[in-house]
Amino acid sequence: MHQGALRRWRAAAQAAPKEELSTLRSLRNRARQMRQVIDEVTFVAESRLALPRIGSSAFPRPAGTDWSWRPQLWRGPLTQKGLSGVASKTTIGDEVTIFHDCRISELTWRQLRNVREDDLSPFALRMDVFRFDGSFLSLVVDMPEAACAGLKRRHLMRLGLTVDLEKPLEIFARLNIKHGPNTEQIVREMPLHEAEVFVEFDLAYTKLNEKRVDRMWVDLIFEGPEMNQITLRDVTFARYPRAEL
After folding, report:
1. CATH placement of domain 67-241
2. Of 38-52, 66-80, 215-229, minimum mean pLDDT range
3. Measuring CA to CA, how many Å separate 61 from each of 18, 93, 162?
4. Please, is 144 exposed, middle or buried when counting C-beta atoms within 10 Å of its C-beta (0-12, 13-18, 19+)?
5. Domain extents for the chain?
6. How confident is the model over 21-43, as a mean pLDDT?
7. What is the mean pLDDT of residues 147-174?
8. CB under 8 Å to 167, separation ≥6 — which residues?
């Protein structure tokens, strides 16, 4: 059917210079009707195809990476798209939890579809913070069991962020690794002034018991978030061994 329609319109285009005016006027009206529908389909298709694909886990990884991950919140659509007056310990999807100590919460979160040309993740998290009477605001990302499997002290753990801020603030990342009764913690400040925002956690500086790693999570801590809009466009993790000397 498509090929037949193309043949008819090619024949009409070739005959148009010598066609009767009444016939040409009818042909023009039909062509305009078709072009309106075709333009609409083309516009929607191009806008959707330009977006990062839902479920995508594509992002740059350092050489030697043996495990990498983008959390569900930035990878696929959530059933709940947002919430206002967010209480502490509110979960977002299966892997992310918001913690704060505000007496009255004036915090909202919303999952957005990324549309920028340089976005690699399909979705983003936007937090709007209005009056903030607490002392801390953090986002906890629970990492899957695969992140702990085969974890060694010779590993580096990389956390990458793509973030937009309404006004400057400091963001700290704390890696927590539970092994047996103990928990190792490494804190790094995110270099928001750099073109590529990431930190590396070197496990060689910990007392990690490689045989008893149970759980791993990361706290993203926002300093002075009052009256700010924080949009986390992407959050990614990668694990790779340190170069041997």
Report:
1. 2.60.120
2. 38-52
3. 61, 25, 15
4. middle
5. 2-50, 67-241
6. 88
7. 96
8. 227, 228
